[in-house]
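Work through what follows:
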Amino acid sequence: MEFTELVHELRGEVIENVHYGAICVVDERGKVVHRAGDPEHMTFLRSAAKPFQAIPVLKRRIPEIYELTGGETALFAGSHRGEEYHIAALESMYKEWMNEYESPWSIFEKVSLANHIDRTEILKTLGNAEVKKIKKMF
């Protein structure tokens, strides 16, 4: 197993983390064209899959429809540590997506759009008791 140093993560001027790994880029025939570490190493996707989680959001043009900033959109694609700029982006999205005057049904519509699921399925998933709780919130 051959890992190589891929990234230094700094906190101020102090190296906080050093990430080692193996990564490769292949062409359309599967031929390795760039690599760092052993391209044959088998591993689990784990956090590397996070960018793929954003695909449905991007395909449905959610950032354009809701006029999200780059920072807000980036939250769909990765892990975060709850740093100030992450919290600011989430709060901004919350203010944009969930208004005080908004009904639970319009929120269901947004969830439906973002997740490509119909409102009936959302209601089935939440169940009557949960829906009643949500209605009382508004």
